[in-house]
Fold this protein.
Amino acid sequence: MNRREAIAGALAITAGAPLPIPRRIVSLNSCLDAMLVHLADRSQIAALSHYAREAQASTVAAQARTLPYTWESAEEVIDLMPDLVLASQHSALATRNALKRLHVPVQRFKVPKSIDESLGQVRKVARLVGHPDRGEALVARIEAAIAAAKPAPGARRLTALIYQPNGFAAGPGTLVDEMMDHAGFDNVARRFGLKTWGNVGLERLLADPPQVLLVGVSAPGARSWADRIMTHPALKAVAGRMRQAPLPEKLLYCGGPVLIETAAAMARVRVQALKEGA
């Protein structure tokens, strides 16, 4: 597709006219990378973000390593002559502005705050890439995974907290909070006064520990901040009341197909914690 066709596509979006199926799609966000890999034809993917290749940040790293990528610069994206760019609200502003000036079609997505919002994004991306049937199939897989992660009716729930570098934790109004609820956890971030994302100091955690501490880890086997927190001497005082469980950080921020792995991981943690007497 040449630049004239890309401009025509952008004008069609503005006019509300039906769009042709894009043939050169660029993603600028790791969460959108995962959706694109699941929903688009391989031949449609002109490039993913560089984050897609990082195993600690992406659930599609293996596939991404066989596909082109960019570092999100305007020059790289423009040279690819895309007829559709998928961007997040955090994508580089300079790149988005440059694409806008050249009338390159850009679809920008917010961070989903709920499961329903995430599923809506899956359907939207599927329509944009011309495969709405794949969107519905992926939605069905996500819903099935979430349903499978739910404890049986009447089963005991556990209190839990997501804990990441600097005590960063997920509170109410976040996608991961809703996922915790579906997996049988009561998020204690509320009792620490968190609204959406915020910080919980180690001292406050020790004073009122949850039954399960879901520690965000950046990469399996790598020595990280999370490892140091999990072995902090002060935690020995609450070892009998609080169990720690690693949870890959790549499962905490994205919706879409990532939720399949998030749901399964949380369910495993809960089952193991109950076995250990939580």
